[in-house]
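Team,

Forwarding the record for the chain on the shared tracking sheet. I've put the sequence and predicted structure together so nobody has to dig through attachments.
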Amino acid sequence: MTTSNVIQFPKTFVPDEDDKVRLPQTEEEVMKAIAVNRMVFVDEVVNQMFSNIATKFYHQGFPVDEELFFKDFIMIGELTRSILYNSVGVEHPMHQVVTDNRDKLQKLMDNGDIKFSVDNDDDEDEEFFEDDDDN
């Protein structure tokens, strides 16, 4: 190999101003960046999931294009987003609605007003909404 066919790369790379990405500089900035990435991930999951559900509902004849139905559908989407945010350690303003209604849901289940089944190997009943102050 001769030196005439070797490409000399620059010893230092100086990116253009447009190419510069500012990385987090402090622990607080790192934690904020992690939270933002988690939020983006959850948002993509929820948006995709609810887009698919809305399409399926529409094709099944449900009135997804009616204002009241759509508002309720959006609320369920935001509650789902709040649950997933909570699961990755990110706060959501509607998560309090979930925590405030756990006892009500458990009472409805205990009274037999709502049936909820879970597939498990031992076919034993599970207690779904035991006291859980962490969430």
